[in-house]
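tool_call: predict_structure(chain=1)
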Amino acid sequence: MYLPPSLRVRLSTPAAHTLLILQFLQTFTQPLYMVCGKPIPVPKMAKDHPDFEATVDKIHAQVVEQLQELYDRHKASVGKLLAIW
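tool_result:
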């Protein structure tokens, strides 16, 4: 199939820019480490419930505790990356 030169340039320019952008982004990629903890049960509760604020505070404390536990458990395996930040 024959394409005139002006159409070839219009079609190839976006493709070339896309490749350049992808190559640029690839140079800054770093490994992503993800760890998962055990689930925290959250009861269903209306916002106007009298114990709503206390329940939110309790669940927030559990989340913070679990995050600290995950960090302490896995910091040795990804410690090189944590030292950078």
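agent: Residues 10 and 53 are 60 Å apart (CA to CA). Proceeding to next step.
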